[in-house]
Structure formats: C-alpha cells, structure tokens
Amino acid sequence: MPTESGPEDSAPETTDLDPDTEPDTESDTDLETESSIDDEVSSHDRTWGILVHATAFVGLVVPFGNIIAPLIIWALKKEESPFVDANGKQAINFQITWTILLIAAAISIVLVIGLVLVPIVALAWVILVCVAIVKTSNDEVYEYPLTIEFIS
C-alpha cells in the first residue's frame, strides 16, 4: 500500500550521502568530523573527565587522595556533564576497589606472597589509570576491569 511520503520524497536529502560521490573539499569533511565530536563532548567536559582520572595520582602523596580527589571533582561536575558523571563513577569505583586490593596485598606481606602482589597491583593500578586518561581524552568512558560498582 503506497503512502504519501515515499522514497522519492527523501531522495533529494540522501543524494549527499551517495558513497560514489566525493566531498567537494577535504576541509568540508574535517569540519563535519570535528563538529560531530564537539557536539558529543566539549573540550571543557573532556578536560574535567581527564582530571577525574588523573587526580588519582594524588594518592601517591596524600593517603586516600586517590579516592578523595576524583570524588571532589565528580561531586562538583556530575550535574553539569553526563560525560564527567560517567567517568567520575568509573574512576571512584576503580579507586575504592583497587585501594581495597592494595591493602589486602599489603597485609599478605606477612604471608610473603604480598612481596609479589603489592608491586603487581601497584603497577597494574598505574597502567589502568593511564589507559583511562588516554581513553577519556578520546571522548570515551573507560570501564576499568576488576572493579566493584559502589556508585552506579
């Protein structure tokens, strides 16, 4: 049964999307790509998303700073940006989980196995935080592995 708005009505709109047709200039394509990225995540949101992960390194200087610093940023910015909110939840959940893992590994030093576990957990922590920073700078919400979801 034919309808009033058939494929012939939408044909003029889709002629620009024809795969055989090349764009007029390269700059037109670049502008379209950049604007679609900017529409999703602003540079301001990207910066705060990166900071929510990067401030975990405060924990190397301040006890539990790896949890407190991302928590402060997330609490201040979660209402302003869904991107910062999602990254903040991931970062805080990861920091709490891995702080528990590191404490458990440190306690296991008494059993000697901690001498191996502490450096492995610490190195994995640094690597995963760096991966999260890079992923966030590419406008992705990084989901850390082996993380308990305390904040959903």
Topology at a glance:
Layout: H1 7-14, H2 26-40, H3 43-54, H4 65-77, H5 82-107, H6 114-137
Helix pairs in contact: 3-4, 3-5, 3-6, 4-5, 5-6
Q: How does this structure look, described?
A:
The structure is a single chain. With 152 residues, the chain is mainly alpha-helical. The chain has a domain at 43-137. It has 6 helices and no strands. It has helices spanning 7-14, 26-40, 43-54, 65-77, 82-107, 114-137. Helix 3 runs parallel beside helix 5 and helix 4 packs antiparallel against helix 5. The longest helix has 26 residues, at 82-107. It is elongated and about 50 Å long. The protein starts with 6 loop residues before the first helix and ends in a 15-residue tail after the last helix.
